[in-house]
Amino acid sequence: MIQRQKEHPKYQSGEALNHLNFIQNDVIKYVEEKYRTKPNSRTYFGYSLGGTFEAYILLTQPSTFKNYILGSPETLLDDSFIYNYDFNTVPEIHDVEINIFISTGELEREDLIEQAKGLVTMINKSKHKNTSLEYEVIKSADHGKAFPIAAVKSIYWLAECNKEN
CATH number, domain at 90? Predict the structure, then answer.
């Protein structure tokens, strides 16, 4: 019998707000103190469950990063959190410029593809002038094979988004 993803020990989730606070208060602060950075051009790349967490950041505290790269995000965890969200009511969303790249593999589970498309649809419906969105389907790729291709394509996308910086 196959265990459902959210019941499998490898996929334990929760405490997203605590993890986000750690990133904001410790990781970002440390990196910006130790290295030359552009705080107004931060990028987060999350794949699979990391993309799920990234969607949480995007929908709750979008000014944390300027660029969001979500690879194959599982968006139905935690009782459909993302689908119960109205992107138009996200705090700060009207005040920040956000670039979003979402990708899935063409051969991934159908529900995963549909979840990514649902997130794309929700963002597109908001029509925020400060939000740009790119959705990419990685041809002939399943969940594992889509990762490296998504990484490369998103770096090219990121370079285009930041040409003016």
Answer: 3.40.50.1820
